[in-house]
Every structure is written in structure tokens, then in C-alpha cells.
Amino acid sequence: MSIVLDPSTTKYMIKAHIKAEGIVEKSDVVGAIFGQTEGLLSDELDLRELQRSARVGRIEVEIEARNGKSEGTILIPTSTDKVDTAILAAALESIDRVGPCKAKITIEEIEDVRVAKRKKIVERAKELLGKILEESKIEGASISDNVRQALNVEEIEYYGPDRCPAGPNIDSSDSIIIVEGRRDVLNLLKYGIKNVIAVGGTNIPKTIIDLSKEKITTAFVDGDRGGELILKELLQVAEIDFVARAPPTREVEEIPQKLIMKALKNKIPAEQYAEMYGIELKKEERKPDKPAEETISRESFTLPENIEKYKKILSDLSGSLRAVFLDRNGKEIKKIPVRELTDKLKKSKNVATIIFDGVITQRLIDIANEQNVQSVVGMKLGNVTKIPTTIKIYTKEDLQ
User: Fold this and answer.
1) Cα separation of 397 and 379, whole Å?
2) Parallel, antiparallel, or unpaired: how do β-strands 375-378 and 392-395 relate?
């Protein structure tokens, strides 16, 4: 129901529900209100007098007839005080007939119109303020982005004899991110990632091959066929530790910060990626960091006592790309994504057994040895040249 209020007089709105045992019209209801309240209250609260003095507004009625009965809503605006308004509302409930029909009126609410107006003012003010802040934010972001992009263009360098486009932190960082081209470098620089370097094509520069031997290296490529080709070439000629991909069909040069960070967070070990896609990795030249007498041939190992438990956990993990840490009593400590395995292992204590859906690598064994892990169980054994005598290594095939 729509009602026009006089903003200078209306303070309260009486809202009532009416139900009549017969067919009645609006005029019948209004007539009953005036007729049955007349003389009921004091002269000061007589409805006709209140309307003449503009302390009660036009009585609005909306009523519908259905199945021989009538039902609807009554609205009465007032500018009297709270007490008088409440008395008028109570008087409405004394009405028991409308025309020839029995009727019942029930007060649903006495609304303070000024409170409702204040709420609307507050909501509208919030809306207007939001627009102001959004416009300021956009303008500020635009200025910041323009300045940042200009700065990033200045920060881009050409690294090494092959003059590979790169960020300024290649030498100072212990890790690097390899991307495809100059625009990829610029996009990562825009979000503060400065240890990035580009190959500039499918022919991998010697500069990048040499860097991959010295630093922890992540290959971050487009989510298309071109990205697959470059990644395959990188894995075969450079020593890549991790692989990150832009979302399918997307390019590193155009994805926003959130997707960049998500892709880098979800990177997976290069050995795992190569195993999944049947790519032969470059053989790493590793110097033994422990005496030769601490290494053994895997032909001399014996199956663990809890082989059935290992088999079940490994079977449950199959296809999940997840890992499980067990303590010395065989109790699960935590379950994590394989991509976080080495990082979490370095920070964990009391891990006795690692079981995971992936390829067992030399790097994992070295870290496990440092953390006093007793057993490592994986799907397959990768390019491993040295196994400490203190660690037992089992693959899916071994546990059959």
C-alpha cells in the first residue's frame, strides 16, 4: 500500500489488520472506525476533531473479499504524542462490526515514522559515501598503478651474456622464477616479484641453464600449448625444482595478482610434473655430501612390519597429490598437499614416516635425513644417487 505522508505533521503510523465475516468495502470500514469510536474517548481524542486539526491524517484502507469474507490492512498516520496514539490504536481494537458483518481489528504495529526516516537517511548516506570512497579508490589506484608501472619499467634489466629480461633481484635472491617473455617479467614486477627472468623463446639461454644449477628454480609458464612446449624444453635442459602454470588458456603477462600468487603457491615439484606427463628430466650433477659408507643398495632392504598399514595409506592417497606424516607410533601427525611437502617437513618435528602420492627425489631424502625421518614411502623412486643407511625407502612396487 502506498500512502502520502505530510512530513511536517506525521510522527507515528498505526498499522492494523482487519478481518470481517462478510463482504465489506473501504467506505464501510472507515465509517465503522468513526462511528464506533465516537464518544468512546474524550473530546480531545475524537477522530473527527483530530482530523480537522490535522493531528490525524487520512485513514487508508486496503481490503479484499475472498470466499465470502473480507480481509485487509488499515493505516492511520498521527502527529499526537505516544500516549494518545497508543489510546487511539487500542480504541480501534474495540470495533466488532463493519456494516452488517462481524469484524475483528488487530493492531500489528505502531511505527515511529521519524525512526524509519532516519534509517533511510543513514542508508542513503552510506550509499553516497560508498560511491565517494569507490571513486577516490579508483582514482588513487590508477595513480598508484601508473607510478608503479613506470617504476617497474625502469627496474627491468637485461641479465647475463644472453641479455635475458629480468628483475633486479636475480643475484641477491637464493631462488628465481623463470617465465617466457619480457611482458611476463613486467607483470610480476608490477606486484613486487623481482627475482624473475625470461627465456625469450623456446631456445633456453645458457644464462638461465647456469642460474638453475645455483638457485632454487621455479618455471612459471602460460596455461596454453606454448607454455607446455617451453616447460618441456626447460625440464630437459635446466635444473628445474618446481613448476607453476597460469590457469588454462591464460597468459602470465595478463593475469592479476591474485591468480599469480595462487599459481605460485600451488607449484608442484618438477619431478612430480615430469612423472605426470612422461617428461625426461635433466640429470642433476650432485656431489655426495656424506661419506660413501653411509649409502646402501636398495636391494638389501626388508619390508616394514606395518606393511599393510603403509599399503592402505598409499592406496588411499593415490591420485590425491597429498602426503601424510606419521610419528614413531604410526599415528598420523598431519596431511598436506605434496607441493608443500619439503617446506612443511623442514618445519616439522617427530616425523618418523612420510607416505605420499608422488615421486621420491634426492632432495626429499636429503631433507628427511636432516629431520631424522626413518621411512619414506612414495609411488616411484626418482633420480636418486644416495640413500642414507638411517632411512628406509619404499615404493608402491616394493609393497606389493
Assistant:
1) 8
2) parallel
Positive or negative torsion for Cα 311, 313, 319, 321: negative
* Per-residue pLDDT reduced to its tens digit, 75-113: 999 988 889 999 999 999 999 999 889 999 999 999 888
- Nearest of 58, 46, 51, 55 to residue 3 by alpha carbon: 58
Alpha helices in the chain (DSSP H): 26-37, 47-52, 82-92, 113-155, 182-190, 206-214, 225-237, 257-265, 270-277, 307-317, 341-347, 362-370
- For residue 190, give the 3-state DSSP assignment: helix
Sequence-distant (≥ 6) Cβ neighbours of residue 59 within 8 angstroms: 30, 33, 74, 75, 76
- To the nearest 10 degrees (0 to 180), the angle between helices 182-190 and 257-265 is 100
Q: Which residues pair with 175 in a beta bridge?
A: 216
Per residue in 282-309, pLDDT tens? Answer: 655 443 444 433 444 455 456 677 788 8
C-alpha cell recorded at residue 296: 646402501
Query: By C-alpha distance, which of 171, 273, 173 is closest to 220?
Result: 273
The answer to whether 34 and 52 have CB atoms below 8 angstroms apart is no
Query: Structure pTM?
Result: 0.43
Q: How far apart are the C-alpha atoms of 147 and 388, rounded to whole Å?
A: 53
Q: Which residue has the cell 616411484?
A: 380
| Domains recognised in the chain with CATH numbers | 12-115 (3.30.70.2690), 156-277 (3.40.1360.10), 292-395 (3.40.140.20)
